[in-house]
Design brief:
Length: about 575
């Protein structure tokens, strides 16, 4: 029972502590909201509203003032007192331990104060905007009036520089002046915010007019003086070139100049209508088009000079190429007596001859067109450049063919040198066989040696053919070279096998008496050796010896290598 009583006491104590802490927290929140309410009531709204009274209290200003005053009065007389009552209610709820209800009321008060704070700030911001608008209006309207007077003065003093645009500029300035009057009326009636809109729109329009007045004189100069002078100069150059014999009909300069003059008139109309940006773009396009026409005329002059200087050089190159082709033709006939040319090579040469003939014909046609004087020099220049590129390409192809002819003789000499080298290598193989004093040669080796000799004979026969077929010679050379190499490699291998067989048998003789199997194996190896089967003899001898002395072959090979090193 004592334990239960203690637990109950502890629980009661915990509840009381929690109750005390929670109530303290809630009262802290009430104090916070009370302080917030007082701070809202102390905001300087009345002071800010008093500033508004210094303005013209009519029209828009009067309406705004009444609206702000009513909002503030409503806050002070109704909303904030209502908050005060709710705070008292909250304290009573806490005294009655109705914590959930008290917490809900506190949340409601927080929301009311937040809305009140926002309304107060909105009133102050709007008051500042109104007063600021009035101050800015007074400052900026004077600056705009100064700009207006300067623009008006410039237009009067230099009216002739604005030409067709002067009347429209007058209208624009009059519109701006009327806005000044509208501004005064709105300000006098207390409509400062509406007056602010007039100031901003007037500022934009006046800046635009000022910028146009800066651009228009230069644009008019371009349209009335600079571009017409360029067109006259262009036309004079065009007529002079025609008199000198240039073919310029394809440029249609007359039509282009008429179009440019029409575009100038359109730009003048745009300037008169104050479409300055469009006029700027149009003038830029006209100037670019005139530059293009100048470039085309210059291109004709450059092309004329090119034709004048390059015709003789191109003719000389063609004649030189044609003479070289004739020499190559004779050389080809001579080479064919000694060498057989492939169908592909002959077709290539016939193609070269044909193309050179076509280039000569094409050059003659261009010459005739130049004399006829009916084709523009720029077009003739392009054709000559294409012709020159083809001549260069044909020179390369022709040179490649000539080198191929020269290579045939070099290939023959190289082939004969290779044949001599292969003969020497085969002779060296035979010398090694004689020096080794083998008891005889295997039939397969003799056959391989005979085939190698026959292949060398075939190469020699190929080299004596007239005309010489170098493709067949190269093929025979390759086949023969492979055979001779195989014979030489087998010769060296066969001699080494034979010598090693002798060494193995000599080494194995020490085991003949003790091991019948070794004796039998060595006798079989000797039999194979005497019948020239050196490879099988070596295998048989090694197999017999390895049975009684594993690793004997490596020791014998080392002894064999040491002996050869001493001999060398």
């Amino acid at each position: 029972m004592m334990e239960i009583a203690v637990i109950v006491l502890l629980l009661l104590g915990g509840v009381m502590i929690y109750n005390h802490v929670y109530r303290k927290k809630m009262y802290s929140e009430i104090d916070r909201l009370e302080a917030w309410k007082i701070s809202i009531m102390n905001r300087p709204v009345p002071d800010e509203l008093s500033k508004v009274k210094q303005l013209n209290m009519t029209g828009e200003t009067e309406q705004l003032f009444e609206k702000w005053r009513q909002k503030w009065d409503d806050l002070v007389a109704v909303k904030l007192p209502d908050v005060e009552e709710k705070l008292f209610d909250t304290e009573e709820l806490l005294d009655k331990y109705r914590y959930a209800k008290a917490k809900a009321v506190l949340r409601e008060i927080d929301q009311l104060l937040r809305q009140a704070e926002e309304e107060v700030q909105l009133i102050i911001d709007e008051v500042h905007e109104l007063i600021g608008s009035e101050e800015q209006n007074r400052t900026e309207i004077e600056e705009l009036r100064t700009m207006y007077r300067e623009a008006k003065k410039t237009l009067l003093a230099y009216r002739y520089t604005f030409g067709v645009a002067a009347a429209k500029l007058d209208e624009k300035l009059e519109e701006i002046e009327s806005k000044f009057k509208q501004f005064e009326e709105l300000t006098a009636s207390g409509n400062y915010l509406a007056a602010r809109e007039i100031v901003l729109s007037s500022k934009g329009e006046l800046n635009k007019v000022t910028e146009m007045m800066s651009d228009i004189p230069e644009l008019l100069t371009e349209c009335q003086t600079t571009i017409p002078a360029q067109l006259e100069e262009l036309y004079d150059g065009y007529k002079e070139m025609k008199q000198e014999g240039y073919i310029l009909d394809h440029l249609q300069i007359d039509r282009e100049i008429v179009q440019k003059r029409e575009k100038i008139e359109q730009c003048m109309q745009m300037i008169g209508d104050l479409q300055v940006e469009e006029a700027k773009q149009g003038i830029t396009e006209i100037k670019e088009e005139i530059d293009t026409l100048y470039d085309l005329l210059e291109k004709e002059v450059i092309s004329h000079h090119y034709i004048k200087t390059e015709m003789s050089r191109i003719e000389e190159m063609l004649n030189e190429l044609n003479e070289e082709a004739k020499e190559t033709s004779e050389e080809t006939l001579f080479v064919q007596q000694s060498y057989r040319l492939s169908t592909k090579d002959l077709e290539k040469y016939r193609s070269i001859e044909k193309q050179i003939h076509q280039l000569m014909k094409r050059f003659e046609i261009i010459q005739a067109r130049i004399l006829e004087a009916k084709t523009a020099h720029s077009l003739l220049k392009e054709e000559l450049e294409q012709l020159l590129a083809q001549i260069e390409m044909m020179k390369e192809e022709h040179e490649e063919f000539r080198k191929m002819l020269q290579t045939l003789r070099k290939d023959e000499l190289v082939a004969r040198e290779k044949l001599d080298e292969m003969k020497k290598k085969l002779s060296e193989a035979m010398r090694l066989v004689q020096k080794s004093r083998l008891p005889g040669l295997p039939k397969s080796y003799e056959l391989q040696l005979s085939e190698a000799k026959d292949s060398l004979m075939k190469v020699a026969v190929r080299l004596e053919e007239k005309p010489l077929n170098m493709s067949a010679v190269h093929q025979a050379l390759e086949e023969s070279g492979n055979m001779v190499q195989r014979v030489y490699e087998r010769t060296v291998e066969m001699i080494e096998q034979a010598s090693l067989v002798e060494k193995v048998i000599q080494y194995g003789n020490r085991y003949r008496r003790r091991y019948p199997s070794v004796k039998e194996g060595l006798e079989e190896a000797e039999f194979l050796f005497r019948h020239y089967d050196y490879e099988q003899a070596l295998e048989q001898a090694v197999a017999a010896l390895e049975k009684v002395e594993p690793g004997a072959l490596q020791r014998i090979q080392q002894i064999f290598r040491d002996e050869r090193s001493k001999e060398e």
